[in-house]
Task: inverse folding
């Protein structure tokens, strides 16, 4: 029986190997990926964030925890894929300029992909010009922007304004998310949609393209 508390503790302690091992056992035992992610992995990252905030953990600990979570998440990614054979829409996703957090953004990308979206993942620290270039090249239905810092979430508005100046705002729906982002903020900056987590991101994305 998979000891999922070991997964939680390993991520908090930044230990990759036991995190991966216990995840493998959980997968073999048929534990639902969503339960592993939501009840253990994300909770562990919250604990690390709390320790950081309390001055009990520092950037190296955040990095190690991120590495452990990413390693375990890699094993779960294939399981997030649904049985969708046809593409239901195209999404361009990236973390905005100045922001290097990508674990949540990648989780959103994997869920969207698993639910039938064609996903182009631009990565982190993406400036408006790069989003614009990619929109012109890839012609996505939805632009997804992620931000984890209160200092970078405001850049989302700059991207939306840049889309307007470029005359392409009406060609793409804009969805925003990330821990400091909320519905009110999304509305204020002129985004079309917002979601709190990777599951609701899929629901919102479908809604935005009329499904
Ligand atoms: Co940083 N960090 N970090 N960090 N980090 C936070 C975000 C922080 C809250 C920690 C804290 O103080 N408690 C704090 C931000 C404070 C603030 O702005 N209010 C913080 C800070 C301060 C910093 C630095 C400034 C620290 C420093 O250098 N002094 C620095 C900034 C670097 C930069 O970006 N320029 C920094 C660096 C880092 C690391 C690089 C070391 C590492 C990131 C590794 C990586 O991502 N590859 C890191 C980590 C790991 C964290 C915490 C601990 C965990 C983040 C995470 O991965 N969570 C975080 C504390 C926390 O979140 N509690 C913290 C798990 C992930 C699954 O959740 O990303 O929220 P999340 O994604 C969720 C939802 O938000 C949503 O769905 C996801 C899945 O459910 N979502 C979307 C996300 N994007 C979405 C997009 C959507 C829809 C939903 O649609 C488009």
Result:
């Amino acid at each position: 029986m998979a000891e999922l508390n070991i997964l939680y503790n390993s991520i908090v302690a930044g230990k990759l190997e036991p995190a991966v091992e216990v995840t493998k056992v959980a997968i073999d035992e048929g534990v639902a990926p969503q339960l592993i992610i939501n009840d253990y992995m994300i909770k562990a990252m919250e604990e690390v964030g709390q320790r950081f905030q309390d001055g009990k953990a520092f950037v190296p600990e955040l990095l190690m925890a991120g590495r452990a979570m990413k390693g375990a998440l890699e094993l779960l990614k294939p399981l997030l894929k649904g049985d969708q054979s046809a593409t239901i829409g195209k999404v361009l996703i990236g973390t905005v300029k100045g922001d290097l957090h990508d674990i949540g953004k990648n989780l959103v990308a994997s869920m969207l992909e698993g639910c039938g979206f064609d996903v182009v993942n631009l990565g982190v620290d993406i400036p408006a010009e790069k989003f614009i270039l990619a929109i012109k090249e890839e012609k996505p239905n939805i632009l997804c922007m992620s931000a984890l810092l209160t200092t970078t979430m405001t850049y989302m508005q700059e991207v939306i304004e840049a889309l307007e100046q470029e005359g392409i705002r009406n060609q793409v729906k804009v969805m925003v998310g990330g821990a400091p982002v909320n519905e009110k903020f999304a509305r204020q900056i002129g985004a079309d949609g917002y979601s709190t987590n990777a599951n609701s991101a899929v629901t919102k994305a479908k809604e935005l393209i009329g499904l």
User: Anything to note?
Assistant: Residues 59-80 form the longest helix (22 residues). Residues 42, 45-46, 48-49, 52-53, 59, 62-63, 65-66, 98-105, 107-108, 144-146, 148-150, 175-180, 195, 197-198, 201 surround CO-5-methoxybenzimidazolylcobamide (CB under 6 Å). Residues 14 and 65 are 4 Å apart (CA to CA).
